[in-house]
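Worked example 3 (structure in, sequence out).
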């Protein structure tokens, strides 16, 4: 039986692919779980149309994200003032939330989860921090940590 996968299924393939499976497997498992649909001419056309619409949406989102990246790269450096103790050691640390708040001061609203820190910043200096705006788009910003 020929079916179209509605979801990624590890053993069979990716969403939108047309595959052949045994009749019982399709009727008893794939159809009730809504993992697949029968590959008729109309369902194939409907899936192709949905795929084209999804591609257009993804392309539009990618263009918007690339514009945000160019806006973010205009900010050459973000400065964060923190309290320090002896030997210029920070009280606490600089986290992704602190960086996101500093970017808000530059009129760039960004979710703290998009900022990728391996570990919190615990000393003064200039750091390169990765920002993931989209699954395919990543950029780097400079974060300067100074005494308050």
């Amino acid at each position: 039986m020929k079916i179209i996968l509605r979801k990624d299924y590890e053993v069979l393939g990716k969403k939108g692919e047309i595959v052949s499976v045994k009749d019982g497997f399709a009727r008893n498992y794939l159809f009730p779980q809504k993992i697949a649909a029968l590959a008729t001419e109309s369902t194939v056309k409907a899936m192709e149309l949905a795929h084209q619409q999804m591609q257009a949406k993804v392309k539009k989102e990618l263009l918007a994200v690339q514009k945000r990246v160019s806006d973010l790269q205009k900010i050459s450096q973000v400065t964060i003032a923190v309290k320090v103790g002896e030997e210029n050691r920070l009280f606490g640390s600089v986290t992704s939330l602190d960086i996101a708040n500093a970017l808000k001061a530059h009129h760039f609203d960004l979710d703290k989860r998009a900022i990728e820190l391996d570990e919190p910043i615990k000393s003064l200096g200039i750091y390169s921090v990765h920002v993931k705006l989209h699954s395919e788009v990543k950029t780097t910003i400079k974060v300067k940590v100074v005494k308050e």
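Notes: The chain has a mean pLDDT of 90. Strands lie at 2-5, 18-20, 36-38, 77-82, 89-94, 115-116, 121-123, 125-132, 138-147.
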